[in-house]
Amino acid sequence: MMVEYKTFHMNIVDMSKFESKLREAEERLGIRPEYRVPVVYERNSDTAGKLLASIIVVALLVALITRSKLFKVSINIDSITQMGKARFTLVEPMTSKGVRFSDVAGLKKLNRRLWNLLIISNGRNDIKFSGLSPPGCGKTMLAKAVATEANVPFLSMNGSEFIEMIGGLGAARVRDLFKEAKKRAPCIIYIDEIDAIGRKRSGASGQADGAASEGEQTLNQMLVEMDGMASKEGVLVLSSTNRADVLDKALLRPGRFDRHILIDLPTLDERKEIFEQHLKGIKLENPPPTYSRRMAQLTPGFSGADIANVCNEAALHGALHKKKCVTGGDLEYAVERVVGGTEKRTQVMSVAEKKTVAYHEAGHALVGWMLKSTDALLKVTIVPRTNQILGFASYMPKDQKLYNQEELFERMCMALGGRVAESLTFNKVTTGAQNDLEKVTKMAYAQIRQYGMNENVGLISFDDAENALGSKKPFSKKLAAIMDEEARRLVFRAYQKTEEVLIEHKDKLEKMAQELLASKKLKL
């Protein structure tokens, strides 16, 4: 009988241990000696040669990799030290042709004041400027003008460029920035968005996290450099931010930032100048002064950046319609585009929804037209907008800072005009008046809680921040109930007044709504 045997080949390091362990395993399994596995040893003379060849190949590969430029890793200590260097932008007065004060429209008084202060400081370190303003009002542009007009080297950095998670790098960059400035003295350091490093330091005694600790170290180094023991003759510091409320008090004290320059939103005349400046680069049907006054009246509360956006939108609208020059209609469209959003003519609304929106917008327009203290109406449309607005009304607002009780009350009536028109026409209301009701509620509570315009509550004022959720209210529950009741009464009176106006002029409401349904736009 033929018996088939299986043969296994393997490499063994220690032959004696292998065979002894094999026999022990066979003993435990109870295998008799005649059936045990025979072991035959063969010595392979090529093993040493193969091992030597493998070593040679690996050595050659390592040599090739280390000599290759693609895989060569150069560790330079300078790359580590460069991390602490300040990455500033240097503006040299002799080689740069930048923005001048004459190019910054709408800020003539501020330009003159900055010019006088620059002459007074004249390279000394005892005057430092801090520009505070809402976004888009021209802080950075004014800084560029200072860089050109000062006729000294100008070192510019952003506040966020100082901050790193690696401990001490921010402080090192501050030291390096002032070191470079001192070499070039007299010169100006400009730090844009200084709130990135100038935030209020925490008063907690515990250990702060890494980011907060690094920010505080950077701020401490900034405070030392601006008003420390070492003299910084000839270095003038200029900074800007739109979040002055979060800055540390030590940064704003005299000796650090001596002059705080507030750049507010432009007035009517300043907006006119800004429009004329931006319209110079656009091919217009008529000269810029033809449009600047009206456009300034249509854009109260607009910043310089908003006005630039309006001019850009007007130019794009004219180009899309293949016009040879931009007209007044393009400019007015651009204001609507910026305020209300792009017209969304592809949105499909049912006949019932269109009718509701038409009467809603007609109600706003009619109440605003009939009351004497409200803004003059220019245009009403029921074309949907991209920001979820189903209707839009354009007014001629006034640059007004102070309002009396009657003016606020009539503004509440105008805001309720849409809801009241829906109720009178359809005997039901929709969700379209949500934003209007929010405005009415804020105006009602503002008169009672902040402006002292209610006899039952009295001449007291509470800030909105004090009434926020989670904070302790500075008034009793009884007074809170009285204020809530008075607010409801005020809104109810406004609703009654609005209802009276619309009932009296119901024929005009019907005519205006039907005209809107027919043409989708109504210009007065």
Describe the structure.
The chain is an alpha/beta fold and 524 residues long. It folds into three domains: 84-198 and 215-262, 3-Layer(aba) Sandwich (Rossmann fold); 268-340, Helicase, Ruva Protein, domain 3, CATH 1.10.8; 351-523, Peptidase M41 (Methane Monooxygenase Hydroxylase, Chain G, domain 1, Up-down Bundle), CATH 1.20.58. The protein contains 17 helices and nine strands. It has helices at residues 15-29, 47-67, 77-81, 108-121, 139-149, 169-183, 210-227, 249-252, 268-279, 289-298, 304-320, 328-340, 351-370, 405-426, 434-450, 477-504, 506-519; strands spanning 89-91, 129-132, 154-158, 187-192, 235-241, 259-262, 376-381, 392-396, 521-523. Helix 6 links the parallel strand 3 (154-158) and strand 4 (187-192). The longest helix has 28 residues, at 477-504. It starts with 14 loop residues before the first helix and ends with a strand. In the C-terminal section; belongs to the peptidase M41 family. In the N-terminal section; belongs to the AAA ATPase family. One of its GO terms (cellular component) is m-AAA complex. Keywords: ATP-binding, Hydrolase, Membrane, Metal-binding, Metalloprotease, Nucleotide-binding, Protease, Transmembrane, Transmembrane helix, Zinc. Its main location: membrane. GO terms for molecular function: ATP binding; ATP hydrolysis activity; ATP-dependent peptidase activity; metal ion binding; metalloendopeptidase activity.
